[in-house]
Design brief:
Number of helices: 9
Structural class: alpha/beta
Shape: globular
Number of domains: 1
Order of helices and strands: HEHEHEHEHEHEHEHEH
Helix content: 40-55%
Bound molecules: pyridoxal-5'-phosphate
CATH class: Alpha Beta
Strand order of the largest sheet: 7-6-5-4-3-2-1-8
Oligomer: single chain
């Protein structure tokens, strides 16, 4: 890409409604480039691997007011590290993981912001609750007082056309609304984490409050 990172960030930022939080996904992006994104105004960074993130976060310790978002599949043996390194976890994708995070959060004295990851279509490549499973688990999730449950995250399966992708995002919004109307004391539904480089415009159209963008800001990754 010929334009600079700061130009790309400015272009994308100005195309988003001001209420939408832009999370720059920095997996496979070196710390020096993350620094340029910070200089261009980014304060929210997303990573999907605990180990890779730890190295980068150590190199970037001097940057004040950065919020780190964990967005990848979280194995339960990495849950403690995730809580130590990240303020947000977008990818809480099953009840057992939620329970473990709640327990560890208590022990560590932290109260992470989390999104619950939902699957609207069968997708063997993605983790997440199905809608009926999530609805059945809400009363248990509501007891996990150390988690600040903020909303829903979803990733449409590969290979959908635009109307189908839009439909997935709209279903995520409707599910969040349905849950909100149940008035849980400890489950808030004010955030929809949805939209990546290829589909964020559809996500914003459907009401995303957080988009997670990598490639469109930093160029292609190796994989
Ligand atoms: C890699 C990744 C992104 C960013 O994807 P791009 O297509 O590069 O924008 C967003 N969300 C998750 C969960 C990811 O793993």
């Amino acid at each position: 890409m010929s334009s600079s990172i700061s130009e790309r960030i400015a272009t994308i930022r100005s195309s988003l409604p001001t209420s939408v939080r832009l999370i720059a996904v920095t997996k496979q992006v070196p710390a020096q480039i993350v620094r340029s994104a910070y200089a261009a105004g980014i304060r929210d960074f997303g990573e999907s691997r605990i180990q890779e993130a730890a190295i980068k976060q150590a190199e970037l310790q001097d940057l004040p007011d950065v919020t780190w978002h964990f967005i990848g599949h979280l194995q339960s043996n990495k849950a403690k590290k995730a809580l130590e390194q990240f303020q947000w976890i977008h990818s809480v994708d099953n009840l057992k993981l939620a329970q473990r995070l709640n327990q560890l959060a208590q022990e560590l004295g932290v109260s992470p912001q989390v999104c619950l990851q939902v699957k609207f279509l069968l997708d063997p490549n993605k983790a997440g609750w199905s809608v009926p499973e999530l609805l059945a688990d809400l009363s248990t999730l509501n007891r996990y007082k150390n988690l600040q449950i903020q909303g829903l995250m979803t990733i449409p399966p590969a290979g959908l056309n635009d109307p189908e992708i839009l439909d997935v995002f709209a279903r995520n919004r409707e599910l969040a609304k349905e849950i909100q109307e149940q008035n849980w004391s400890n489950i808030k539904m004010q955030h929809l984490s949805m939209g990546m480089s290829g589909d964020y415009q559809l996500a914003v159209q459907a009401g995303a409050t957080m988009v997670r963008l990598g490639t469109i800001l930093f160029g292609d990754r190796l994989q």
